[in-house]
Amino acid sequence: MAARASRPLSSEIVEALPRIRQLCRRFDGCTETLSYGNPTFKRGKTSFLVLDRYKGQSCLWLLVDPVLRDEQLAVDGWFASPYDPRRTALCCDLNKLDWSSVETLIEASYNLAGH
Asked: I want to staple 37 with a disulfide (CB 3.0 to 4.6 A). Which of 7, 54, 86, 106 is the partner?
């Protein structure tokens, strides 16, 4: 089966991708791939970050600690991932992403992918 090709990326994702790549370079075993045409970062076989679009909205998808999930949902721009029956991931509108705190959130997601 052939790998799925990259789909056209929104301007928000094109702008965010180099910053995300730079942040993820420091994580051991982090790989970048495409999942359903979206830039996806994995630890081993587990995705911990995806740049995606839901309902026309460019967003960052991350794993989150279930204990902190409701707290993060209260922050403007964050919403429940539509494909997350275990309630272990959230999305953030890239236009509302607080880049000053994103490194901490990405690191937490990376750590959760290792469990």
From this structure: 7
Task: Please give the residue range of the domain that contains residue 89.
Answer: 11-113
Q: In what helix (H) or strand (E) does residue 25 lie, and over which residues does it extend?
A: none
- The per-residue b/e assignment along 74-96, b for 16 or more CB within 10 angstroms, e otherwise, is eeeebeebeeeeeeebbbbbbee
Helices (H), 1-115: 11-24, 69-73, 102-113
Does residue 43 contact residue 50 with C-beta atoms inside 8 Å? no
CATH code where residue 40 lies:
3.90.1150.30
Summarize pLDDT for 54-95 with one digit per residue, the tens.
888 999 999 999 999 999 999 999 999 988 888 899 999 999
